[in-house]
Structure formats: structure tokens, C-alpha cells
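User: Working on a comparison across species. This one is DUF4386 domain-containing protein from Dictyobacter alpinus. Can you predict its structure so I can line it up against the others?
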Amino acid sequence: MSTRFFSILAALGCILGVVFLFISFSLNPAPPTDPAQLAAFGKQYHNAILVGSWLQAISPLLIIFFVLAILHLAKATTRFVGLATLLGASIFMVVDLLEVTFYLGAANAHNLTTALISLSFVNAVQHLYSIIAAPALIIPLGLVIIASPVLPRMLGYTAVIIGSLFAILGVVFLFTPVVDGVAALAILEAVEELWFPIAAITLLVRELMASRKATGQEQIVASV
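Assistant: Here's the predicted structure for DUF4386 domain-containing protein from Dictyobacter alpinus:
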């Protein structure tokens, strides 16, 4: 597989992954806080929760493939900052899959107690996203981009800022239930989710332009 084709495929996968993530959020509404309404909610949205959970599990994998592509193109896989990004990607996947696991546990629970316990674990895991998962992935990735010509440095600086804000909010909301701080975290998470397709589209445009330029040069050489 050529590097150019590999880059294009990884960029398209990242865009698809973000689309999957937004669809999963739309399919998986927040459950009611009243336990008396939870059983009816589970029956009404059971299939939607399962599909949304599947999409939420697949989405970060496609995004991580894009991250790996950036590391490969930047030749950073053996550098410390590249290894830090790989560690962050692993943490990111584990946290996401833990959340999905507890969503599935709540959806398939045979009694209300099990469903409530699973949802409590979901809220606990969501704390990990701002505390460690998001900053551990996007901060070192931003540093990789800053130190390489693969993507514009502005994207790298933006990634570092986003990751730093996540780390700060992780401390700010450490003693606060996630549902109480969801507005601030949701806004920042939306910014991060937009960062990835912007980076993917930028890489895609660069590779397509490079491919067109290479084709034009080949045609000039052939006509000489």
C-alpha cells in the first residue's frame, strides 16, 4: 500500500468515525434520573442504545487508526512523544470501551438494581475521559504535529490547548457529578470531535493535491 493511499484511507476512516460518534450520541439519549422511569426508558430505547453503543465502540477505533497514520507519516513511532501518543491512544480506547460495556450492561440488565449500578459506572467512567483519556491522547499528538510537516502546526497547537483544557476541567469537576458539569465538558468534547475531522480533511486535501501534482509531472515527463 502506498503512503498516499494509506493517508487518504486513514483520513476517510477518521471522518467516518466522527460521523459514527455523532450518530451514537443521537441514538443514545441520557437516561432519566428518576429510577421509577428507568424501566420504561430501557424498553423504549433498548435497540437504539445497543446500536449507539456499537457505533461508539467502532468510532474511536477509526479515529485511532488516523492517529497511527499521523505517527507513521511523521516518523514518530519510535520517538518519546510518539510512544506517549500510543499510550494515550490505548487509554482512550480502554475508557471508551469501559463506557460502552456499562451502557450494554444497563440495556441488558434483568433488574432495576443492575441497571442503576451500570449507569453509576457510566458516570464514573465519564470522569476518566476529561481526567486522563482526552489529554493523554491529544496533547502528545499535538506535539507530534508541531514537530513535523505532516499537518499545519496550528492544528498541533490547537490540539495541545484542547488537551490542556480537558486536564483542567478534569480537576475542576473531580468533586462534581458529571451530569452537573456536562455543559462545559460537552462543549469542549464537541470542539475535540470537530478537531479530528478538520485534521483528517486537511490531510486528505494535502494528499489529493500531491497526487494531482505528481500526475501532472508524470504527464509532462511523458510528453517530453
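For your comparison, note: Residues 3-222 form one domain.

User: Helpful, thanks.
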